[in-house]
């Protein structure tokens, strides 16, 4: 895993011009993937469709769609561009390039039904789509499941040290199922400048109030900001990202900017660009 691949990620709720500009610049600078999240405020698949219009080769990932909010059939219908088939108000068909799509899903809600929801959801999506499917995993049980059934796993809010432990859980699940270890990736939140760092702290506090993430931070024994990178220069960002080399197959720079403008986002895309692009 030396020299891990690098992706770039933004929020799906940012303006479309930010998505297009960031995706095009990420591709030109040699990033391997471009990711968006998916929330009630921002449709991840619709944002990826914007990115697809201005790119040709970069992988397009959504990390992740909550299966407690979206059914597999509605997700598949939207991916395939079947307008009107989605079961969430406002969703429209998108027609995404399947050969570039990294389709991330997660339970979206904890409790005893979370594992079954993800297992069944992955199976249903495989039957409907020829796409690469990622699972979002925090705890050991979901990591095991990712190893058993997913093409990739997307970690979130963790340190390089804890990522190594999570990888072991995924590998154990894969070995139990007699299959190769899935691709291993993580969102690493990165902020450039003091204003972005303040927003990063606010986002960490918000996640710490979510029970599943609160448990996750307790398991690691760290505060949310300890899993992130807040730096004042491109050189400092590159130095901090180097701590992830060899830990995972891919590190996704999850952008945190003060106001989600084109200028701020492009500055971060360039500051965190793979060194081979320089």
TrEMBL record:
GO terms for molecular function: oxidoreductase activity, acting on paired donors, with incorporation or reduction of molecular oxygen. InterPro entries: F420-G6PD/mer, Luciferase-like_dom, Luciferase-like_sf. Keywords: Oxidoreductase. It comes from the Bacteria. The keyword Glycosyltransferase does not apply. Residues 15-79, 133-201 form the Luciferase-like domain. Gene3D superfamilies: Luciferase-like domain (3.20.20.30). PANTHER family: 5,10-METHYLENETETRAHYDROMETHANOPTERIN REDUCTASE, PTHR43244. This is Luciferase-like domain-containing protein.
């Amino acid at each position: 895993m030396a020299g891990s691949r690098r992706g770039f990620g933004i929020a799906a709720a940012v303006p479309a011009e930010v998505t297009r500009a960031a995706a095009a610049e990420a591709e030109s600078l040699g990033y391997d993937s471009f990711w968006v999240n998916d929330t009630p405020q921002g449709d991840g698949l619709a944002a990826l469709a914007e990115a697809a219009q201005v790119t040709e080769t970069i992988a397009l990932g959504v990390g992740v769609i909550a299966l407690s909010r979206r059914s597999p059939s509605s997700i598949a219908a939207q991916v395939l561009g079947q307008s009107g088939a989605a079961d969430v108000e406002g969703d429209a068909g998108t027609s995404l390039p399947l050969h570039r799509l990294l389709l991330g899903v997660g339970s979206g809600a904890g409790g005893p039904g979370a594992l079954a929801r993800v297992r069944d959801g992955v199976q249903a999506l495989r039957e409907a789509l020829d796409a690469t499917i990622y699972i979002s995993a925090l705890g050991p049980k979901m990591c095991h499941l990712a190893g058993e059934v997913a093409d990739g796993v997307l970690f979130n809010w963790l340190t390089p040290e804890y990522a190594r432990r999570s990888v072991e859980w995924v590998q154990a699940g894969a070995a139990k199922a007699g299959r190769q270890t899935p691709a291993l990736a993580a969102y690493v939140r990165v902020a450039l400048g003091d204003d972005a760092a303040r927003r990063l702290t606010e986002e960490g506090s918000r996640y710490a109030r979510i029970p599943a993430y609160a448990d996750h931070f307790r398991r690691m024994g760290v505060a949310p900001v300890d899993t992130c990178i807040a730096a004042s220069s491109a050189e400092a960002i590159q130095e901090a990202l180097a701590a992830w080399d060899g830990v995972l197959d891919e590190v996704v720079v999850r952008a945190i900017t003060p106001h989600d403008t084109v200028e701020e986002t492009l500055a971060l895309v360039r500051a965190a660009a793979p060194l081979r692009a320089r």
